[in-house]
Design brief:
The chain is an all-alpha fold. It has three helices and no strands. The model has no long low-confidence stretch (mean pLDDT 83). Keywords: Membrane, Transmembrane, Transmembrane helix.
Length: 60
């Protein structure tokens, strides 16, 4: 299993655990809010680089 697949599997497991322990709206807020907050902390140049890499991978 690749490193990205392990991270994705861990995220799914964490999301399921959050859904069990928290109301659905709180789990959704955490699942969507954490990556958004992390993206907002990036510099504009880092955001451009991230978008460029994502587009290259989509175009493969």
């Amino acid at each position: 299993m690749s490193k990205k697949a392990k991270i994705a599997a861990g995220g799914v497991a964490a999301g399921l655990i959050l859904l069990i322990w928290l109301p659905w709206w709180a789990a959704l807020l955490i699942v969507l809010g954490v990556p958004t907050a992390a993206y907002m902390t990036l510099d504009p140049s880092q955001r451009r680089r991230l978008r460029r890499v994502t587009r290259k991978e989509i175009g493969r």
